[in-house]
Specification:
The chain is of the alpha/beta class. It contains 1 helix and 8 strands; from the N terminus they run αββββββββ. This is Tat pathway signal sequence domain protein.
Length: 144
């Protein structure tokens, strides 16, 4: 009977230990995904719609990115701040920004140049930059 309990204890411990690497790997994969989802030309400029998903275990109170807008010829048109506001953990958010006096077809690329503000009570200062994943579902390239 004692050997049966020893076996069950050993099997339980082995199961517990085998789950640790998966948990650790999930922590390493924590990231912030920002996807340019749509670009719509308006009379006064280009309306950009971004989908943001915070993959960190806790929310981000405020995320502001310094971005560079390049024209279709690849030249810098302007530097601007995009304020994504609060980004709760594991919940998608859509944020829209108007790029004034520029049509969407004239935007060649958006560079996420750096983080201006990243506030989270439980995450480090680099939570908005470390593991930042940038994607685009439009003809406009998004890099960082």
């Amino acid at each position: 009977m004692k050997s049966r309990y020893s076996f069950l204890f050993f099997a339980g411990a082995l199961t517990l230990l085998s789950s640790l690497p998966a948990w650790a790997e999930e922590e390493v994969r924590a990231h912030l995904l920002i996807e340019l989802n749509a670009a719509e030309s308006q009379q006064d400029g280009c309306k950009l719609s971004f989908l943001a998903l915070n993959g960190h275990p806790v929310g981000i109170a405020q995320a502001v990115f310094e971005t560079v807008i390049f024209d279709a010829a690849g030249q810098v048109d302007r530097l601007t701040l995009l304020d994504f506001s609060d980004l709760p953990a594991a919940r998608p958010r859509v944020r829209q920004f108007m790029i004034a006096d520029m049509q969407c077809g004239d935007i060649g690329r958006i560079l996420f140049n750096g983080v201006s503000t990243c506030q989270s009570p439980r995450l480090g200062d680099d939570a908005c930059e470390a593991g930042l994943v940038l994607e685009s579902k439009t003809d406009i390239e998004v890099t960082g």
